[in-house]
Amino acid sequence: MKKLMKVEGMHCGGCSGRLQRTLAAIEGVESAEASHEAGTATVVCNESVTDEALKAAVEGANFKFVSIETVA
After folding, report:
1. Burial class (CB in 10 A: 0-12, 13-18, 19+), 25
2. Residue 72 — very low, low, confident or very high, per pLDDT cuts 50/70/90?
3. Residue 65 scores a pLDDT above 80
4. Please, which residues have CB within 8 angstroms of residue 62's CB and are 6 or more apart in sequence?
5. Would the CA dihedral through 55, 7, 18, 23 be positive or negative?
6. What whole-number distance in Å separates Cα of residue 51 and Cα of residue 3?
7. What predicted TM-score, i.e. pTM, was given to this entire model?
8. DSSP letters for 13-55
C-alpha cells in the first residue's frame, strides 16, 4: 500500500533526509521518500502500519503533519 502525506516544515535536503530515515525505521514500512521541495512524504508499507503511526513519526521528527491519503 502506498501513502502520500503532506508535511510542513521541511526546508532543505537534510530535513527531508531526516524524515525519510524516521519513516523508513517504522516496522512494516518497505520504503520511504520525502521531498522538501514538494512538502510531501511517500511511504510504501504493509497494512499493519496505521495512519496514526505515520502521523506520530512525522510529528516526532518535529514536522507538521497536514494530511494523508492512500494512492494507487
Report:
1. exposed
2. confident
3. yes
4. 9
5. positive
6. 9
7. 0.93
8. HHHHHHHHHHHHTSTTEEEEEEETTTTEEEEEE-TTS-HHHHH
